[in-house]
Amino acid sequence: MKLRSLLILVLALGAAACGSSRTAYQRFPGAPPTFERAAAPPQAVAVADKVLAAAGGMDNWNKAKQIRWAQEKVANGQVTDKGEAAWDRWNGRIYGRVDTAEGADVAVVELYGDYVLAFVEAKNGQKETLDGREKAVAAEKLRLNFQLDVAAMTMPFLLEEPGAKLEYSGERKDGEKAYHDLRLSFPDADRPHAGLIYHALVDETTNMITRVEVEKPATGDRVGFELSDWTDAGGLKFPATRKNLGSGDLAKSTNIRVGDPDDTLYTAPVQ
Fold this sequence. Notes:
- It is built from five helices and 13 strands.
- With 271 residues, it is of the alpha+beta class.
- It has a single domain (3-266), classed as outer membrane lipoprotein receptor (LolB), chain A.
- A 13-stranded antiparallel beta sheet has the order 6-5-4-3-2-1-13-12-11-10-9-8-7.
- A hairpin with a 3-residue loop joins strand 3 (93-99) and strand 4.
- It is globular, with a radius of gyration of 19 Å.
- Residues 1-19 have low confidence and may be disordered.
């Protein structure tokens, strides 16, 4: 067997062994095993239960070890970025690939650890690992995308994630439409979501989230997303289109797949 093939095989087997040894979802340090329902206001829990049921239910969410999708960003009617993303919920990893004229930029971040991987891949398949500032910038972009766009895409299920602090912020009116305003935050130990407050606006008729607002009190930053084009995948519903209410830019997801983690996505390339 050629040395390169042997190295690839060893890496693949090592990654698979790591994933298969886990018996529960990777969480942040000190995370409770399940959502603490008794700590949340009954009205908030009642609304969240309806949202979860409408989006596919907790049983199906608990089976979704990885979510993977193709994605493009659209600004002023023009595609500005195109690629793929994945969230390995089982092992606490995220993956992002952006296609470029030369090939692709790829980044991997361990959500509850320090592992970061970034590399560029030429169209001929040659890969070059990034380091220093380039690696840090790629990782920061991926983390920010997870905090904002991925959070908006999976918000129905985050409402009852272990460690989530769920509150009821009242009712909002938009003409004749009425919405529940659910306020969601996470402890500082949950580094991917720490310091952020999410508001999920729930249509009282359909029990679907129509808008997600994210605020960062420390800086005063705030961004909102309008959710639409709900799509079924693995028994779950995801908003395939998220519109940034400030810029008007769109994030559009296609080929959404739910299943087991694909360890090859998160493995460093063989040089």
